[in-house]
Structure formats: structure tokens, C-alpha cells
Design a protein that fits this description.
mainly alpha
Amino acid sequence: MDTIQSIYQTLLVITPGSDVFSLQILLLSLYVIALVFSMARAHKDQERITDFLSTITATIKYALTAILVEIFLEYARHPDNISNNFASIQNIYLYLFFINIAFVFIHYQIHLRFSFVYGRLYQVVKRVFLWHGFLHLMIWFKFVVFNIQEDLLFIEHFYSFFVVYLNITLFIAMIKPSLLKRFYLELILAPMYAKTYHSVGHVQR
């Protein structure tokens, strides 16, 4: 338990003096790598448009949230800011919730405009966005609405590790979308009930 707590404090807690090179930047680098792989497959006509659009959307969304988190990290590096305006810093979780919900809609609209199908990667990206939105809202309620700062630490641990888990598994899915053909792998990569389905088509308008 002490080891888990140490990892949590080192990687996932925003504190004064947090390292500039945060976990957010590392994960963003992975997303950019996934996008490069997707572009390379598209150049060789080996990438479906739905997977390409999903990878672009996920990368842009993560870049936006990573930049936002880095701004808040920079602000939180100064002890005076934490002591004087801590509540406003914790509102970042609410902003992240709205960004994720907005990108669920944006992701759908992009597919409606440019793709004839909604592939498995589309479904996984949508579920990850929804999971992220739910987790950010949950932790915002804990910190801001109920003002629970020190107690119920297991909620913070669950939130932090599950957010990172979803980011890493989404990277894996974007690097190799063919993995999603196996239903059990899809559920591992993006946990949520989903029926076995074929790609859903729609009429281009």
C-alpha cells in the first residue's frame, strides 16, 4: 500500500513544485505517435476513415486537456496560489468534464460529415470520453461541491489510476485498431457494456 501511495503522490498529485514534465506530456506524446502511425497507414490506404477521424479527434482532445492541465500545474507550482485560490484550481475538473462531453458531440458530428461508418474505434473513443467526463465530474463533486479534501482518498486513487489506464489503453487501440475485432479486448481497453456489432453505416448527406 505504501508503494502505491508513493507512486500516486509522485505521478498524479498536483502540488507546489510539481515537475514541469508531467505525466500529461508523456501521454500526449503517445497520442501523437498514434496519430503518426494512423497517418502512415492512411497514406498507404490501410486505414479506415472512421479510425483515422477517431484518432485525430482523440489526439486533439487530449492535447487541449493536456495544455489546460499544464496551465493549472504551472499555477499550482506557487504555494501562494494554492493557499489563496485553491477552490478555483480544483474547478479544472469541471472544465475537463465539459471538454469531454463536448468532444463526444464533436466526434459524432465529424463522423456524420466525413465518414460512412462508425467503427469500433469510434465506439471506444466515445466510451473513453464519457468515462473521462464521469470521472472528472465525480472528483469535482468530491473536492468542490462536498469540500472533501483529506478523507475518502480511495476515490482520488481510483480516479487518477483509471484516467491514466483509459488514456494508455486508448493509445493501444489507436496504434492497432485491429485489436478491437476481439470483443473481450475491446471491453478491456474501454470498459463499458457494448453489444457485439458490425460497423454502423449511415447515409451521407
